[in-house]
Design brief:
By secondary structure, the protein is an alpha/beta fold. It is built from four helices and seven strands; from the N terminus they run βαββββαβαβα. The two termini are 16 Å apart.
Length: 129
């Protein structure tokens, strides 16, 4: 889970993770746009014999927890999501899963924006096989 305040680049970072996985051979199974932001989406990727669920819609607590359940039902080994750090329910729920990791993202100055996104994306990727 990538946690941070509104406008810090969570969606951009999770999208960078998704794009990197696709470049490494992951295949999309059900990508769809989520909510009113055209940049928000969900998908399940097949990658190295496992399923990875991705959700970028991190400013809606109910959607994050619903997607956690949906991911588990669909046999996903990993769930990569953005989550606004003002929420408590998704944090409590994600910690119930063995091996959970929460990466924190803060707002950065424009000159450091891309470097911070790359750093957070690489940290998330390091948790995946």
């Amino acid at each position: 889970m990538l946690a941070g305040p509104s406008g810090c680049g969570k969606t951009t970072t999770v999208t960078a993770v998704y794009d990197q996985l696709r470049k490494q051979g992951a295949t999309s199974t059900c990508k769809k746009q989520e909510g009113g932001n055209p940049l928000d989406f969900s998908d399940i990727l097949k990658y190295k014999g496992i399923l990875i669920s991705v959700l970028t819609m991190g400013d809606y607590s109910y959607r994050i927890t619903d997607c956690m359940d949906w991911s588990a039902k669909n046999g996903c080994s990993f769930f990569v999501t953005a989550c606004n750090d003002r929420f408590s329910k998704p944090f409590k729920k994600i910690l119930q899963f063995a091996g959970s990791n929460i990466v924190r993202k803060s707002k950065t100055i424009p000159a450091q924006w891309q470097a911070d996104i790359d750093k957070c994306a690489n940290t998330i990727l390091s948790y995946l096989p």
